[in-house]
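Protein entry
_____________
===
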Amino acid sequence: MTTKILVTGGAGYLGSVIVPVLLAEGYEVKVLDNFMFKQNSLLECCANEHFSVVRGDCRDKATMKEVMKNADIIIPLAALVGAPLCKIDPIATQTTNYDAIKLLLSLRSRGQAILYPCTNSGYGIGEKDKFCTEETPLKPISLYGVTKVESEKAILEAGNAISFRLATVFGTSPRMRVDLLVNDFVYRAVTDRVVVVFEGHFKRNYIHIRDVASAFLHGIKNFDRMKNEPYNVGLSDANLSKLELCAEIKKQIPGFIYMEAPIGEDPDKRDYIVSNEKIESTGFKPAHSLDKGIRELIKCYTIIRNARYSNV
């Protein structure tokens, strides 16, 4: 019998890559999305008999009750993502990122598994040269981080779930986002050839979007031995500062100029390095390096030159 998967927010940046991967594995996938960005990123899936789609809101009880029927696995991607977007609309952030998760948990049957996309931005400002593990206290510094961390706590307490604390994602998607750090810096390198960096010593971890899809697939296939735990998901060789990231981009775009601003500050104060040893110990290994992702993005930005590919 075919496993049935519900993906809320499945037409977004992550979902537009994850859903085709799940369909290719033979799963039956239903997507709920409100298509707030007017995206058409799942059109290629429409010919697949195992794909279905509902236009609706994850905060609506009647809608959720209907789409959750018969689902074996739920992947709640629906969220307002990123600190800038969440700052613009804090009420929608609270109701979408947290209240909708509480609703989902209230409607879920005991046997329905959840694979949740959290964020490692919950680590906030880490200790210098000390890796954040899943045991590190969570100290989110943005509304986005707070709502995701609170939702993760509720999901893990409810049980029969896995949480993936995703590093900063990069790479191309049918629902592209240019406003993620690697994607943004490569875009500027391709189009402007210059970027001014604020607080360039701030570090964070990175992960390719296709490796995020692979992590979810890995979680589905190894659910029983991984369940009820959080897992950091990132590239263990890519705990880089913003200036180090720029240096990696310059290797492929020699004309790229970057400089650190002598004054001013970045409103995003996240600064941490992350250990991904826990998920790697389960057999998961990322397949896409930062270098490979930069090459991919250069091709992407040869095709698109438009600021509408962002959340704000």
